[in-house]
Amino acid sequence: MILLLLPVFALSQKKTKTAEDNFNHYGYMVNMSTYEELSKQGLTDEEICKNLGNTAYLNAKYDEATYWFSKLFELNDSSIDADYFYRYAQALKSTKNYRESEIWMNKFKKANTNDVRALNHSKDENYLKELMAPSTEFTVENLSSINSKESDFAPSFYQNRLIFSTARDLETSKRTSTPYLNLYQATKPNEENYSTATPFDKELKSMANESSTSFSKDGKTVYFTRNNFNKGSFSRDKKGISRLKIYRATLNSGLWGNIEELPFNSDSYSVAHPSLNEEGTKLYFSSDMPGTLGASDIFVVEIHPDGSFGTPENLGPKVNTESRESFPFISDSGILYFASDGHQGLGGLDIFSIDLKKYDNVANLGNPINSPYDDFSLVFDEERTNCFFASNRPGGIGGDDIYYLKTIDCMVTISGIATDKDSEKAIPNAMMTAYDGFGGIIGETIANGDGEFEIQIPCQESQYSIAGNLVGYEEGLLLLFTSPNEKEIKNLKVEMEESSKKAVVGADLVKVLKLDPIYFDLNSSYLREDAFENLDKVVAYMQKRPDVKVEIGSHTDSREEDSYNLWLSDRRAKTTVSYIISKGIDETRISGKGYGETQLINRCANGIICSDRDHQLNRRSEFIIVD
């Protein structure tokens, strides 16, 4: 089902071995899935890393792509094409590693100064913050009534129905000849939700893959995408690839017939994802035909009154880049919407728009339509009351799900207080920020003099976080869930830790917490009364930081034999450990060790005359943070 997202829109079943550095070629080695298998085929480490990285990238497995691309750049003897810098930067962005993504994007810009993607990025290097800011007009929700456990995408409108492409037939069919994708429909009676999906039309169904429909205004003509299919089998090129083609069918007496492929289709390149303009005089589509600037471009072709076609025209560098542009949708007002991973985005495929009448700059639709994942195939009806698109973002039902835009008609009010993590005292004037699940800012305010704050966020079923920031403190972060039924969340407590108290491996909590020294009497391993208050502060610190582990190091002065002092200090450490465990700290988080007189903090070693006060300074316990 991912085949319709791939840059050359093809499905390959043929194993190929070549040293050619070709992004598309590597991506289609679909049967070579492991390092070992590719190694047995005789490929070099460089070819293997490219192959696995590109395959993961094309299949939206961006975490895997970052792994293999990083391995690729570790090969010191490799001469890597700069396009891999871009893919690596995009994959890092899709895993929300924005800082490192910018590093590799800057390397790409330096290597390809005239590349459209580099030029677009140079225009606004602060674009991420702008794109993450969510809309206050609408939110997105999963169209759960029709989505399946497989991929569902490419929605379009036909009468009162929503037509879309789905791989759900794979769930029930055991036949190996079953195609991946078929066309399904769901109706929307009045203002109710769309009904359960059913197959669209048997006349348009074949043993090939069908998707991406576009209907004429009178409902009598449909354009759709299908694999190159002839006489009951896939037609393949010399590389074993069955290209995609656009077909046209007409409605006669309630039946779809006269199915014909468009004249500019080819067995050597792909044409896919049709979209008709309002008048039915122009057809927009995606292709990698000759003249394409990148992996795939958006084209337009004139439809003559007699049904014949003009010559396809590339929409040019304002729309198309050296990467993937796909899934065009032309609105009634002449605005083109399309998916791309070549323009500035949040990661993966993002949805963009451009007014073709003005031919102004391309605009990213931003959060919440776009995410760090693949977002594509947006459509809306004439009244703009129904808007749908597909995405593989987390939280969906299948690989790709269809989502719809929902007008925000309410806000959730979140209130609470910022407090010191240790003292629990209120922290005044902290900057409080609300983030959505993708890291976009959805609300911001400053706590008052009593540390109290209130933030409003859109009603949306998702995960949010509230962060507190103030100079001298580490960021405090609180995760929470809201749903459309919740209109108010009260009494949140965002704890913030003083930067000086941050748990750093090797730090002594006596110094971090500014404790009084914990001393022992001469020749004694019993805890003194003045020690308990300070030990309780160590316990409180560890209770608030469940990831912190501590090693207690106990010491003696230089009096008595060295061996006796080691034994005594070990008893002091064990006594201290036992007390902390008795207060509820898990024994796996606290350990002890006696150092005897091996780590004196002053000159009072064996044979040196010192006062009792100086010797006392060595009879101590330290609380060292460890891994």
Automatic annotation (TrEMBL):
This is Flagellar motor protein MotB. The keyword Membrane applies. The keyword Nucleotide-binding does not apply. Keywords: Cell outer membrane, Cell projection, Cilium, Flagellum, Membrane. PROSITE patterns: OMPA_2. It comes from the Bacteria. It comes from Maribacter algicola. It is found in: Cell outer membrane. It holds the Pfam family OmpA. Residues 507-627 form the OmpA-like domain. GO terms for cellular component: cell outer membrane.
